[in-house]
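Prompt: For my understanding, could you write out one protein's sequence and backbone structure tokens?
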Amino acid sequence: MPAYESDVIAQIDGVQYTTRIHSLNVDKARASECDDGLNVESEDSNYINRPILVEGSWPESNDECLLSADTVWSTEVSVGDKVLLAEGTSDLDDTFAVHEYTVSGFVRSSYYTCSTSVGSTSLGSGQLATFAYVPEGAFAEDFPYTEAFVTVDGARDARWATDDYQSLVDATASRINGISDDLLASRLDGIRADAQAELDESRADFEAERADALQKLDDAQAELDDAKAKLDDAAAKLASSQATLDSSARDLVSGQAQVDSGRAELEAQRAAAEEQFAAAEAQLAAAQASYDAAMAQRAMLAEQLEQAQAAGAYDVVAQLEAAIAQIDAQTAGVPEQIAQGRAQLAEQRSQAQASMDAAEGELASSQAAIDSGCAQLESGRRQLASGRPNTRTASHNTKRAQTSCPPSVRMPRSSSPTPRRSSPMPRPT
């Protein structure tokens, strides 16, 4: 009897347990009987490892499960509690179709002969804490069988764990192992055959779609060829009328080039000014840092002076007073110089911005004149095309390269002012 099995960490009543989850054929379980609480009777001989329902009921849907009746739970677990799958030995979505279950009952299973030693796992501490059963439909649709239960002829009549019982089981296991390679090859052949069939079907669909696409491309190419022939004929008829528009367009292109050159020069001046401003800012920052360091040193010397005066170390007092006096002499007037430098820098920025705004205004005026010329050129094209409605597209596409009005490129206005070269900033001594 094939079956599914997978280890998970399940959260039950707020506590996590390493759990081995088995699949259960619910229909076969429901059809079985267990009157004495020990032996499960079933008319289906292929129904193996039959769990005994101790409390509750068999699952009615794929989101219900059965828990071990012999597990010592950390809390009071009962029918109706929720079981949430938190982690698995593989991706939960690849293994299970359902991740949360409601407990419908409790069972005992002959698969587990000792309630305190359920088995080992790669999860958690390495030891399984409990087991559970879920309907076969709770496993993912494409999840493969992971185990197979078999019966051995004669084993039912032998006592379990005796040499006679073990020899029967070992002989059967040996025969199964002997054909395992053939079973594996057969399984691989089946997988390959399914994959090849799917590939063949996909290839057939692709070829059909490809043929349809090629036919559409051929039809489209024929239409394009016909349209091109018409356009070429129209372009030839408009060649002489286009000459005047070409000359106007060249003049506009030349004017646009001059405006673009002016913008480039303006941006170069702006970049140079920004470098000068940055250098001036650096000088002021260095002067401020030097002054702050001198003031910090003076504060430290003043503190030492108070300590020396209190201790009566007059030779040290004289030295400290001389050092403080030297610092005062070196820093005298420095804050005013720094403030004056910052004021000069701000004034230069303002003047530079005004100069740049004036230059931008001149360029904008020139650009407006070019845009006006372009509008007139386009108006001439429309008038030429309106006189020959069947060749309007040809006029637009064929001669566009020679008579195209230059694009009106609007450079974004820089947020940084563009100054004249600033005067050197004063530095503290």
